[in-house]
Amino acid sequence: MTKDEAVDAVREYLQNVVLGSAEEEIATDAPLLKWGILTSLTTVQLIGHIQSAHGIIIPHDRVVGSNFATIDSIATLLAELPETSVRA
Questions:
Q1: Rounded CA gap, 46 and 50, in Å?
Q2: Is 2 left (phi over 0), alpha (psi -120 to 50) or beta?
Q3: How far is CA 19 from CA 11, 27, 35, 39, in A?
Q4: pTM strictly above 0.85
């Protein structure tokens, strides 16, 4: 997955599933944790979605605040990880 594809995928998920509205686009540098868009529960749900929809497994040691602080940081992480053939 390229970084641009990851930005689009994460933004779409957050807007449609977490926030329930795609009316306003979330900026790639918006502080997701600080604003409460991502909580421990929604982060786990996002990770599950990424694995099932995109075949990317995020290692436990990469699930840290700095990797989930913004859409940009999540997209950077996803672009670095390999896609697998395992999808739920």
A1: 6
A2: beta
A3: 10, 14, 12, 12
A4: yes
